């Protein structure tokens, strides 16, 4: 899915659109891992965020995560949506457990 | 259903009236898709909105979505209403997951 | 039921008394519709309203609907009450989904 | 039960003591209605009220109903109490659905 | 149980210690009532009260009932405690339904 | 367990660490009471307290109980923790029912 | 797992990342304890903390625990996450029962 396509999804309030990282289908040495043995990963990339929830003065509270962040996802929750036959998840910003940085 | 007819439905507070987009009944090449194989779509168009929920000073907080917006709907929730034998859904503004823009 | 009788019911706080519109018993051409085929209507008329819920300063917040309004009712909820062997429903003002205007 | 006896019950906070109106045991023409056919009435008389719930400054918010009011009761809820082997109900003031006036 | 003993129980916050009034074990004429026929009474005496719940400024809100008050108890709730093999009940002040005065 | 050891447990916020008083294993005259006949006691001693919950300005609200207090425990709730193979209970300060004073 | 690796996990808001202390696998004298007899420990080390929950002015409230703290964990709750095939737990700061200090 091209990044340009996802620009068209604008999550509302404090929602963030996340794409789950797919489990590895091959071992490091290239051997295919049968689907049942693939570990369900709880990591994903933020592909779009809302402007944030409203505070009592009607202003948006910025989200804790930004587009491009690698994040830890909670084991349950989130609304599954299908965009161009790819699966995405919408979470509340406050449901995202942690950011994962690579350096 | 003519647009003029729907002008007569005035959602209250932060409710928005949505018409779900119907699943495609034919493939791109014109072959009919049997009903069971049609994918349930979670997209719809906003056809009417309320003035918004009341804040603690009794003023209406404007809704996040407007008439004509294409939106992503949550997988459950919403009150189903029938107007002129067509099915519509009433959601709280804050339940709408995201806007979908086409450019 | 005469309107004068219903003047005697004074809903408290933000409650509104609604009379559900009965399903059509005949088709446009006058043929009787068997009871099972009659569609349960989710529309009603507001016959009485309370002064509104209390805000934190003890003042009544006016209801969103008024006596005479045609309204869309939620699919569940409301307290059923019988007045002179006619069925009425008491809803919270905020539970009423939408107003229906006829022009 | 004499009114003087009930003066001794002082509901606390926003509670109101209600005596349910008994269902008619005879038809207008004097024929006894068997107990099963007697309609359960959701009307009662307020026999005592508390001083009202406390607001955030510690002052009592007056109840919406007064002693002597004929009221519509919700279909469930309320604490049943027995005073001198007569049955009474204690409701929160805000649970009372409506007042019924007779003129 | 001597009153002096109960002085040693100091309920915390808005809790009140209540001793349920025992059901009559004899009729007015002195005949013993079998235990099963004894009516469970929902009345009791307040034997100790806390200083009250804390308001947002950290001050105690005085309880609605005082030591010595005869009160109506809710049909459920309360924590049962045993002091010197006698049964007592701890309720939140706001759970007590009503005071019963004897004059 | 030496008191010095328990100094090392620092409950967080409004939590209090309590050691339940063991049921008597002998009668006053020294006869052993079989374990099943021993009454489960709902009394304990506070062995450590947190600094208190945070108010809206971020300050700690002092707990109602202090180290050394003899207290009445609720019949359920509390987190059981094992320290040096002895059983302790962590309660929220507001869950403690009452203090028990001995004079 | 090297400490440097865990620097990459940044819990959001008031979440804290904890590694549970493993149960002893040998007795003091070196005899292996069979897995079933190993006691499940409710202690852990804080390996990362978020900046804290947001107060109503949008500022972070500092967490009660810090990286390196030895803590008592609640018997249930927490989200289990796997980082480099090691098990970690994410808790809300306010769910951590107590700190354990060793001096």
Automatic annotation (TrEMBL), chains A, B, C, D, E, F, G:
- SMART domains to which the protein is assigned, alphabetical: Cpn10
Keywords of the record: Chaperone
Can you name a GO cellular component term?
mitochondrial matrix
**Family annotation (SUPFAM superfamilies):** GroES-like
What InterPro entries does the entry give? Chaperonin_GroES, Chaperonin_GroES_sf, Chaprnonin_Cpn10_CS, GroES-like_sf
GO molecular function list = ATP binding; metal ion binding; protein folding chaperone; protein-folding chaperone binding; unfolded protein binding
Q: Where is the signal peptide?
A: none
Entry annotated with the keyword Chaperone? yes
Q: Record's superkingdom?
A: Eukaryota
Note the PANTHER family from the entry. Answer: 10 KDA HEAT SHOCK PROTEIN, 10 KDA HEAT SHOCK PROTEIN, MITOCHONDRIAL
Q: Which family does it belong to?
A: Belongs to the GroES chaperonin family.
Annotated function:
Eukaryotic CPN10 homolog which is essential for mitochondrial protein biogenesis, together with CPN60. Binds to CPN60 in the presence of Mg-ATP and suppresses the ATPase activity of the latter.
- Name this protein carries in UniProt: Uncharacterized protein
Classification of source organism: Eukaryota, Fungi, Fungi incertae sedis, Mucoromycota, Mucoromycotina
